[in-house]
Each structure stands twice: as C-alpha cells, then as structure tokens.
Amino acid sequence: MSPKPKPKDLQKMLAELEASLDEEAKRSERYLNQLKYAKADLENLQKQTQKRIEDTISRANGRLLIEILPIIDELEMAIEASKNGEANIVEGVDMVLGRLQKVMESEGVTAIDALGKPFDPRYHEAVLELDTKDHPNGTVIEEIRRGYMYNSRVLRASMVKVARNKSSDDYNEEDKDE
C-alpha cells in the first residue's frame, strides 16, 4: 500500500485542483462566449445574404417588367384600334409579338426548334402519333404548342405530333422475329 498523504500535501493538491478548475471554467466560459458571437455573426450573415438575394431578384424582375410595359401599351393600342375598325390590326399585333420575342431572347429565353427533328422527350411532349409514310418514324411533324428554353434549361417542353411510320414498324417487328 502507498503511504497516506499528509494534510499539507492534500491541501496543496486541493488548492491546485481548485485553481485548475477555475482556469478551465474561465476557458469554457470564454469558448462559450466566442461560440455565441460566432453563431450571432453567422445568423446576421445569413439574413444579409437572403436580403441581398431578394433585392437582386426584385431588381431583375423590375428591369424585366419595365421592358414589358411598352408591349402592354402597344397591345392596348391594338385593341383600341380594333374597336375603331382599323384594318391593320394583325400587322400591329405581329409587331408587338416580335417585340415581346426580342425581350424574351434578351433575357435568355429561346424557342425550341422541334419541327422536322427526331422526337426527344427532354424537349418534346408527344400528344399524338400520326401514321404516315411521308416522314421517318419518330419525327416531329407538327408543333401544337411551342416550347422554350431558359439559358440551357427547358422552361416548357414543346407539345408535338410525332410520325409513326408503319413501314419502319413492320421492319422492326421482322427484326424482332428473327
């Protein structure tokens, strides 16, 4: 067995342990305060970032809306002209459509070229298959509703009619039988 420590040694050890405990308590309190400050800073940064994002979106939307307002004015004038019986209404509406398409293109919106292309489910939504011998199988033969891309992402797929060529279907069935 080990000898019993003397009371002076025990008091000295106790004093050292209490000092060490006080030092660790101060250090942990300092770390806790630093953590609280860091958390508050992070929350403030997140709020500022969210506000900046919302402001940027708002400014971009405002800029786009300012470009669309004259088009609305022109459409209103076209409606008024049609009420007065002016004959060039189609020409005026066509000009307004052209202007709107230019605004859309300047914002990165482009039409999907579908007619005569092979059907691609990423860009086209087939609503009907038509039996035909005039077009290759799987070719888009009519566009019901135009599709659009925004930058390189599909905004809306084209609604299309797709050719189904019986002769190529028969040929494919013969290949399957062999």
Helix/strand layout:
Layout: H1 7-83, H2 89-106, E1 109-111, E2 124-131, E3 140-145, E4 148-150, E5 153-156, E6 158-164, H3 166-177
Parallel strand pairs: 2-6
Antiparallel strand pairs: 1-4, 3-6, 4-5
Helix pairs in contact: 1-2
Overall pLDDT confidence: 84
Number of helices in the DSSP assignment: 3
Query: How many angstroms does the end-to-end distance come to?
Result: 94 Å
Q: Ranges with pLDDT <50 over ≥5 residues?
A: 173-178
Task: Give the fraction of residues assigned to helices.
Answer: 55-70%
Q: What strand line-up does the widest sheet have?
A: 1-4-5
**Count the strands?**
6
CATH class of the largest domain: Alpha Beta
The share of residues in extended strands comes to 15-25%
Largest sheet: 3 strands, antiparallel
The CATH topology of the largest domain: Hemagglutinin Ectodomain, Chain B
So, CATH architecture of the largest domain? Alpha-Beta Complex
Brief sketch in words of this structure:
The protein has 178 residues and is α+β, with helices and mostly antiparallel strands. Helix content is 60%, strand content 17%.
Please characterize this protein's 3D structure.
The radius of gyration is 37 Å and the shape is elongated. With 178 residues, it is α+β, with helices and mostly antiparallel strands. Helix 1 runs antiparallel to helix 2. It has helices spanning 7-83, 89-106, 166-177; strands at 109-111, 124-131, 140-145, 148-150, 153-156, 158-164. The strands form two sheets. The chain has a three-stranded antiparallel sheet. It has a three-stranded mixed sheet with strand order 2-6-3. Strand 4 (148-150) and strand 5 form a beta hairpin. It folds into two domains: 8-107, Hemagglutinin Ectodomain, Chain B, CATH 3.90.20; 110-178, Roll (Nucleotide Exchange Factor Grpe, Chain A, domain 2), CATH 2.30.22. The protein is 60% helix and 17% strand. It contains three helices and six strands, in the order ααββββββα.
